[in-house]
Amino acid sequence: MIWIDIKWIPRRTRNLTDFGKKRRKVKRNSSDVAHPRTFLGVPEKGSILFALNGTQAPVFSNVPPALELLSNITKIYLDSPLSTRVIPIIYILAMAVGMPANIAILCMLATKLRKVSSAILYCSLAVSDLLLLLSLSFKAYYHLHGNNWALSEDLCRLVTACFYGNLYCSAQTLACISIKRYIAVVHPFLYKSLPKRTCATWMTVAVWGVFAAGIAPELLVQQSYWIPEVNRTTCHDVLPLKESTHILLLHSSLFLTIFCLLLPLVVTIVCYSRIICELNRSHHDWSVYIKASSLVFVIFLVCFTPAGVLQLSHHIQLFLGGTEGLYMYFKAAVCLCCLHACLDPFLFVLMSKSAGSRLNFKPFVKMSVSLSA
Length: 373
Fold this sequence. Notes:
The protein is mainly alpha-helical. The chain has helices at residues 16-21, 72-79, 81-111, 116-144, 153-186, 188-193, 196-220, 247-280, 287-319, 326-355, 365-371; strands spanning 2-3, 5-7, 24-25, 33-34, 49-50, 67-68, 224-227, 232-235, 238-239.
């Protein structure tokens, strides 16, 4: 989200011909000016002219509220190849690979997997990844059209909520899976005594409950704004978070970053570290499972750590009144999270096959129970 200073422009009901002939000045005063959300700048004194003449305002009968950019960084990002070419290409590749792969995993889980507790968590992850990848189709369209949102405000809210909500949902589900594997390997007898199906169900319900609560602020506030300096309508990239209508979104975004992205990241790091250490201390050869676990762990770190750290740093800067330049790097880092959504099915297959190595060590009950997770 790009920080800007905002001037609210009242909507007028006029003919296109009248807009072509006349220009109206919009008076401003200090009470009309709100602090920016993402990209910063200096409020322009005076007035800005808007006319539906094809140069300054969009030719819509329902024009979204207008915002004034405060920084050239915003314009550079909106016009850059990063946002108009690189990011949408990554989104398209993630969709092309991830959607059929996740659908295939759902079909396999529904027909072949016998362990219901594992099926519940993996189905939740596959559904979350599918919704995330589905939202990428609209975001790719938005970026390929020069970061110009030509669709409705309601759809902008829905796509934004679906994108970020399922991003957090995937991270939390992966953390739940890592906890399940940690208990199975490090505390196998406890794992064997647990009601695994009930635990998996409640973990899934909790994750989707947080998802529902997390997307509510995104659905309740205006997400699309007309930016006259660049002659386009942005979706979520430029928001007035210091406005009373958007303060809740700012705080909820920071809360979700910490507890739904960074906390799952820390939990996953601790769990996989303990799993690998426990298996390395064993007198038996678990090299296949260790390598598979290490690969899953490293891919998770590479995909989620940059986005989590950059988003937290970005919000801290905004709260402290600093610059907003980290936002464009965060947008690039989020692409890695999207790539993880298309890799999840392949990592699931990899872990399933490596866990099958337990059959070679049937006499060792402890490890047999552990790796069955």
